[in-house]
Amino acid sequence: MRQDSKLSSVLHVLLHMAEHDGPVTSEMLAKAMLTNPVVVRRVMAGLRDRGYVRSEKGHGGGWSLACDLSKLTLRDVYEALGEPSLLAIGNRTESPGCLVEQAVNAALGRAFDEAETLLLSRFGAVTLAQLSADFHHRLARRKRPYDLEAVHGA
């Protein structure tokens, strides 16, 4: 089963943007996300609508952060992406009149709700500043040079 990595990809590029001086083009972000620049623009539009990023057109333009990373949480970004499904599993719905299916779905539904509540709570407790600090901690432990753009073939 294929996992949805959009949230991870967007967090990834937001941290790249935080390390970059000036705007970053959709083409550069697309390389980091392993996708098409059109997809990047569509995804970033939701973040722009919430005031997390801004875009500048023309030569020297691109995307840049528009907010303080210490105020932006994983949950904020998740919500800006349209709240994609958190769980890859779900209930069987082929026989809604079946009492066995109803019992199974009720138990699973409660567990799914509890898991989503816990996950969203954790998302709300983690800021992008914390992710950035973790990146910088890893960078400081590294013994050799590290070029963020070269990692993605930019």
Structural features:
Tscrpt_reg_Rrf2; mainly alpha; 154 residues; single chain; Arc Repressor Mutant, subunit A; 2 strands; WH_DNA-bd_sf; two-stranded antiparallel sheet; WH-like_DNA-bd_sf
Question: Can you put this structure into words, describing what you see?
Answer:
The chain has 154 residues and is mostly helical. It is built from 7 helices and 2 strands. The chain has helices spanning 6-19, 26-33, 37-49, 74-80, 99-125, 128-141, 148-151; strands at residues 53-56, 62-65. A two-stranded antiparallel sheet has the order 1-2. Helix 2 (26-33) crosses helix 3 (37-49) and helix 4 crosses helix 5. The radius of gyration is 19 Å and the shape is elongated. The model has no long low-confidence stretch (mean pLDDT 91).
CATH topology: Arc Repressor Mutant, subunit A
Give the C-level CATH assignment: Mainly Alpha
Q: Indicate the radius of gyration in whole angstroms.
A: 19 Å
Question: How many domains, in number, for the residues?
Answer: 1
Q: Give the total of beta strands.
A: 2
**Uncertain segments:** none
Ends apart, CA distance between termini = 30 Å
Pairing-aware structural class of the strands and helices? mainly alpha
Order of helices and strands: HHHEEHHHH
Helix fraction? 55-70%
Strands of the largest sheet, in order across it?
1-2
Sketch the major β-sheet.
Answer: 2 strands, antiparallel
Beta fraction = 5-15%
Mean pLDDT: 91
- Superfamily at the CATH H level? Winged helix-like DNA-binding domain superfamily/Winged helix DNA-binding domain
Which architecture name does CATH use? Orthogonal Bundle
- Shape by Cα distribution: elongated
- What oligomeric arrangement do these chains adopt? single chain
Total of helices: 7
GO cellular component, one term: cytosol
Protein name: Rrf2 family transcriptional regulator
GO molecular function: DNA-binding transcription factor activity
Pfam families: Rrf2
